[in-house]
Amino acid sequence: EADIYQTPRYLVIGTGKKITLECSQTMGHDKMYWYQQDPGMELHLIHYSYGVNSTEKGDLSSESTVSRIRTEHFPLTLESARPSHTSQYLCASSEPHQGGYTFGSGTRLTVV
Amino acid sequence: SQQGEEDPQALSIQEGENATMNCSYKTSINNLQWYRQNSGRGLVHLILIRSNEREKHSGRLRVTLDTSKKSSSLLITASRAADTASYFCATDTAGNTPLVFGKGTRLSVIA
């Protein structure tokens, strides 16, 4: 069983709303990641963090922000949701020496 | 930026047959990993092969790596309907950067 949790599982919101997608892990992993997965399955890196108070932008980071105040928590915020943000958002974590990633079940976001 | 490319994009086989998926990448790697994703869920790590390894086994999975050709293959032997999923390769390049995933292969195993 994965020890990384994403909430909500599904979300439908209106254009212009501010939303935060939650991600928490209980494994004590320093490294955490957010990926956006489009309908064609391709995963795009949005943001990542290698520890508390450390965040980096990925290839697709515009219009979203992250924070890493606690090791276990890595929330993603969309300041103003648009229909183009409709997608599956996947959170993952890993141990320091780059073994496999553990993924959450994802948040499927629909912006109408 | 896309590093890995899986081939084929989709594969449909009968239960009991073997399934082979290929992954090509562009730059030098530390390791290459394979993941499975069931519909609408997160990815699950299957196997990791390091750049100095050529072959690795895990149960019914066999992974090969050819660094000279910058390619890897995932073989699932004696497939089952439960193997129906999407399979992704991911590369860990030098420089402590996050994994870069390919576009995946959709595998359908028909009972």
**How much strand of chain A?**
over 45%
| End-to-end separation of chain B | 37 Å
Number of helices of chain A: 0
Termini separation of chain A comes to: 33 Å
Task: State the total count of DSSP E strands of chain A.
Answer: 11
Number of strands of chain B: 11
Order of helices and strands of chain B: EEEEEEEEEEE
Query: Tell me about the biggest sheet of chain B?
Result: 6 strands, mixed
Mean pLDDT of chain B: 93
Percentage of residues assigned to helices of chain A? under 10%
Largest interface: A-B, 26 and 26 residues
Q: Return the structural class of chain B.
A: mainly beta
**Quick one: biggest sheet of chain A?**
7 strands, mixed
The protein's oligomeric status is heterodimer
What Rg of chain A is obtained from the alpha carbons, in whole angstroms? Answer: 13 Å
- Write down the overall mean pLDDT of chain A: 93
Number of helices of chain B: 0
What portion of residues of chain B belong to β-strands? over 45%
Shape verdict of chain B: globular
Description:
The complex is a heterodimer of chains A (112) and B (111). By secondary structure, chain A is mainly beta. Chain A is built from no helices and eleven strands. Helices cover 0% and strands 50% of the residues of chain A. In chain A, the strands form two sheets. In chain A, strands 2, 4, 5, 6, 9, 10 and 11 form a seven-stranded mixed beta sheet that branches. In chain A, strands 1-3-8-7 form a four-stranded antiparallel beta sheet, with no helix packed on it. Chain A is globular. Chain B is an all-beta fold. Chain B has no helices and eleven strands. Chain B has strands at residues 5-7, 10-14, 19-24, 29-37, 43-50, 55-58, 61-66, 71-76, 85-93, 100-101, 105-110. In chain B, strands 2, 4, 5, 9, 10 and 11 form a six-stranded mixed beta sheet that branches. A five-stranded antiparallel beta sheet of chain B has the order 1-3-8-7-6, with no helix packed on it. In chain B, a hairpin with a 5-residue loop joins strand 4 and strand 5 (43-50). The termini of chain B are far apart. The interface between A and B is medium-sized, with 26 and 26 residues.
